[in-house]
Amino acid sequence: MTDLQLWLSAVEMGCFFGMLALAYYLIHVGAGFFNFAIGPYAMMGGLCTTWLIITYDLGVWPAAATAVAVTVGLAALTELAIVRPVQKRSGGGELPALVAVAAVLFAIQQLAGYVFGYPTLPGQSLATFDPVTVGEVTVQPSSLLMIVVALLSFALSALWIRSTRTGRLLRAVGDSNRAAALLGLPVNRIRLIAFVLAGFVAALAGILFAPKAGVNSLSGLAWSLSGFLAVVVGGTGSVWAPLFGGMLLGLVEVFLPYYFGGQAHVYGMLLIALLFFALKPKGLFVRTVRA
Amino acid sequence: MAITRGATARLVASLAVVALAAAGCGGKGGSDKPTDGTAKGQPIIIGMDEDSTGPGASYSTIAGKTIRLAVQEINDKGGVLGRPLRLVVENDESDPTKVPAVLQKLHSQGAKALFLQSGSAAVMQAKSTLTQLSLPAIAPTGVTATLVEPPNNELIYMLANTTKDWAQVYCGAFKAANINKIGILTDDTTTIAALNKSLLAGMSCVTIVATEKGAANASDLSAQIARLKNANPDAVLVTSVGGAFEVLAQNTLAAQLKGKPRFSLASIGNQPSSWKLANPGALEGLVFMGSINPENLRTKALVDFLKQKNGDSYQVTAYDAQGWDSVQLLKLAIEKAGGPDDPKKLNEAMQSITGYPATFGQASFTLSFSASKHLGADGACGLSLIEFGADNKPKGPWVTFQPPCSN
Amino acid sequence: MTAQTSQPAAATAGWDIRDIRRVPGIGGFALGCAAAVLILLWVGSDGYKQTLVTSAATYALIALGMYVPYLMAGSLSMAYSAYAGIGGYAVGLISTKTGLPLAVAWLVGPIVAALLAVLLGLVTRRLSGFFLAAVTLLFGMAFTAFLIDAEALSGGSGGLGNLRPLNLFGWTPSHYQVVLGSAVIVCVIAFLLDRLRLSPWGVIVRTMRDAPRAVEAAGVRVPVLNLLALALGAAIAAVGGGLFTYSAGSITPDTFTLNIVFLAIFMPLIGGAGTPWGAVAGAVIAVELTLNFPAIQTSGTLLLALGVLVIMLVAPRGVVGYADKLRTRTWALLRKEPDRG
Questions:
Q1: Which phi and psi (to 5°) does residue B183 adopt?
Q2: Which end of chain A has fewer CB atoms within 10 angstroms, the N or the C?
Q3: Which of A248-262, B16-30, C232-246, C274-288 has the lowest mean pLDDT?
Q4: What is the reported pTM?
């Protein structure tokens, strides 16, 4: 494990998975369930940006801003139009919500393919400077940006949850939607904020990660699974836990193929999922005292 | 409750509008449908199984578009035996479970022969259905040798050189460039797994020091490439269906294995849209198995024709040429059989085509078929090694080695 | 037949407190068979329509397989692409690598699939909901990777083809008879599942979904029931996989993809989750939309996905549920009429 280039890759992957996991985390804290449509949100961010640039000759920044807005809209629509009515009817059961987000995931993939086309499109670089060479390691501008933005979004999220009223409400609401409603807390508004923020973070992650290997309408499912694994591995005990889970997963994704070759990571991911889900379903960082 | 119901109803309505809008523009695939042109008489119906929306859409539609243009061109010039060709198209989304139904549907619409323009797993699934329906079919862009080998290969035809010939060409190239050890980077698709099997079996001329596999939708290949680096090969050969995987591989190779000679299959050269995915200069020096050769006059004519139809910036690929030739071959077969209606006769007519000068490959390259030869290519002349330039676009024939053209 | 009908009714009266609607199993069976006969009449000798029926039967069997643990026991397992694949590979392997009668494949495939489901169920016994869905999705992906890697067994990426025709004691069914047979199999399995749903076992399984502790307290071992449901579901999906492989004549690692798994989750929603017949109706609608919808060349699947969302919001009981409501209302209306007179 001495090849620094590999560590760089692992960290970059880790930051991406971490951001996806952060999006999961926000919704899980605020609404108490896992939104499997996070991956497709990220895909939407990346794919929509490129499509706008190719089709309408938009600049990178306006295109990215539009894509983020569209994704945030989708996230809000998921909560308002699908999850909330379904959960209201089913009385908070887990299965209907799960099926609903599976349907959302599938629908966003199909819709994106229909609107943006099915081939893989190149990601867009938000920063254009020459690759930085440190010793033997070449750092692409997109990698640098990914890492910086991931750290920033985690720091900002932590700050927001700790020191704003809405942030603190988020945790209170997430612990029990029903109890919070009885207390007169604005449950619906807080949940919506969680979804919007998650959509924002996911879209940003997608845009930043797309330059690495391009993005197509079907990228979302694999991203959803990676993000979910990251949030489960990390746990929901602290805002930073998802980043930790993401990093661990990034290491697995890079070093497992390095030592065992080939498809090792496919089997490895399954193994990690089984191990963690069976032994530590709450993740590495568990919140022991619930406020 | 009444209020929330109202809100839900509105949202549902907006979803329904989206669905309707999607349905409304759903017919756009049919707008460039070829017309009967100047040909009169009863149309000859040809079916095409095209993946226009699934994972194979990126390559399937390139040849599909040219097939439509070729049909239009034939009809404009009076058709086949005075009758127009009429194309019926169905989409299987490269999903093998849909293939039997799609082929049956084409058959029930009266198709007398088929173009199979879909993912290779789907085309493999199609073979047994073809036998059930006794419909002759051409897979214009197929390169997997097993496709035209038993079982169920009586009715399926392919044009381009298969991987067996590729192995010879690579061997010649490695010898010329003094390469003894190669490392292989491959994706995990079933298409490429089948291709590797036959390609690598024919490459005993070099030592394969490492074979690394990555997921086709991988977002990182640095581990695989670090392993390749440890094996210290003289050159790296990337075998993939192209697209994002290939470009990610080349990007990472360019950064981590600077200066190492790189070779690739045909797909990267056939996907102009993928070139834009590469980092600046990342494809420079990459040598791929091309089949578009500017010295072939028929290729030149096709390039002119397609630029006139699709605009000057259109990049003509082997997929275009193979789609074009497939239509011409079918026309020949129908003419030889005296009509499209007897599938047995049509199949025999297809097998009697010899020495058809191809629109791809070197100038003297021809296609021939027989009862035991369902693969058109005559010799390795259909191939040429092409090198990428610094602008991430094919620069021209690789100077170190070109496959010898014996015939 | 009368004895059969009275049994579920008695069982329902005694056990089922939740399901007041009480659809007697035989009623659904009669309706399902009538629909099947109509469809088969519409099909006739048209090869394309026959293939539509076998595709619909395959989808229906996979959806029915998922229905058992998902809607009855409340666990969403998404490994059904693997189970259907096992059924398919059983047909392929027995046909190409052994001299055994092909019919054995429909015995071996479901048993192997059931065993694998039990094994996976044991490993994941503590998981539910999102966790189970994620693990089983990953399992499906790993299974495809395994099929590609295990070339000696599975024929690698090229898969297995050139299958023998079925031979039952010297009788080789024609293509149409296979189509007929697949419709019959779907109807019988849906009927049996419907009966099972209304039987004491089914009631316990469904209670387990809603109140596992109560069932456990009553002395029933929940994990065992759960495993049984998973095994049964996997076996049914394997029958479907075998059926498709036989009628299509070949199987590859990519034949059954995650796409089918998603569609199979949605089919009971479209058709109506109240009864297994909903899954069958959903499969017919899904095939109709994705394969036989002439107006939309490009996006039957998109329409299906959006349709599922709409159905989930406005018609949670699905098509069959709505039809049933309509039937009850009409009946009530008809009964009221004489009262007024």
A1: -110, 145
A2: C
A3: B16-30
A4: 0.80
Chain A residues touching C299 at Cβ < 8 A:
110, 114
CATH assignment, A4-279? 1.10.3470
Using an 8 Å Cβ cutoff, are A278 and A227 in contact? no
Q: List the structure tokens of A242.
A: 């998802």
Interface ipTM above 0.95: no
Does the pLDDT value for residue B185 go beyond 90?
yes
**Could you say which residues of chain A have pLDDT below 50?**
288-291
pLDDT score recorded for residue A156: 94
Whether the Cβ atoms of residue C34 and residue C40 lie closer than 8 Å to each other: no
CA–CA dist C239, B318 (Å, integer): 42
pLDDT of residue A290: 41
The band of C12, judged by pLDDT with boundaries at 50, 70 and 90, is very low
Q: What is the pLDDT of residues B261-308, one digit of tens each?
A: 999 988 888 888 788 778 888 999 999 998 888 788 999 999 999 999
Q: Tell me which residue of B289, B238, B262 sits closest to B403, measured CA to CA.
A: B289
CA–CA distance, C153 with C241 (Å, rounded to integer):
18
What is the pLDDT, as a whole number, of residue C31? Answer: 79
From first CA to last CA, the distance across chain A in angstroms is 41
Residue listed under structure tokens 């096992």: C86
CATH of B5-161+296-376, one of 3.30.460.80, 3.40.50.2300, 2.60.320.10, 2.60.120.10: 3.40.50.2300
Least confident of C4-18, C208-222, C228-242: C4-18
Sign for the CA dihedral angle at C75, C77, C83, C85 comes to positive
Q: Hunting for tokens 């019926």 — which residue is that?
A: B88
Residues B193, C306: C-beta atoms closer than 8 Å: no
What residue spans define the domains of chain A? 4-279
A119: CB partners within 8 A, 6+ apart? A216, B57, B58, B243, B273
Question: What subunits touch chain B, counting only 3 or more CB pairs under 8 A?
Answer: A, C
Asked whether the beta carbons of residue A267 and residue C126 sit closer than 8 angstroms, the reply is: no
Contact B220, B181 (CB under 8 A): no
Contact B3, C271 (CB under 8 A): no
C302 vs A210, more confident? A210
Is the CB of residue C99 less than 8 Å from the CB of residue C231? no
CA dihedral B336, B63, C263, C290 (to 10 degrees): -60
User: In a mutagenesis test of the B interface, which of C52, C149, C250 is the best target, namely the one with the most B β-carbons within 10 Å?
Assistant: C250
- Chain B: give the shortest CA distance to residue A41, in Å: 17
Amino acid, res. B48: M
Both structure tokens of B368: 């021939």
CA-to-CA distance for B325 and B348, rounded, in angstroms?
A: 18
What is the rounded distance in angstroms from the CA atom of residue C312 to the CA atom of residue B212? 45
C46 contacts in B (CB within 8 Å)?
108
Q: Is B237 helix (H, G, I), strand (E, B) or coil?
A: strand
At A78, phi and psi to the nearest 5?
-55, -45
CATH 3.40.50.2300 residue spans of chain B: 5-161+296-376, 163-290+385-397
Closest-CA distance, A120 to chain B, in angstroms, reads 6
For C38, other C-beta atoms within 10 Å of its C-beta total: 10
Alpha-carbon distance A117 to B201, whole Å?
A: 37
Catalogue the E-assigned strands of B150-251: 156-158, 181-187, 207-214, 235-239
Looking at the complex, report in whole angstroms how far the Cα of residue B1 sits from the nearest Cα belonging to chain A. Answer: 11
- Which residues make beta-bridge pairs with B114? B47, B137
Cα distances from A94 to residues A152, A281, B340, C37, C275, in angstroms, run 33, 16, 59, 38, 20
What end-to-end distance do the CA atoms of chain C give, in Å? Answer: 37
CATH code: domain B163-290+385-397 is 3.40.50.2300
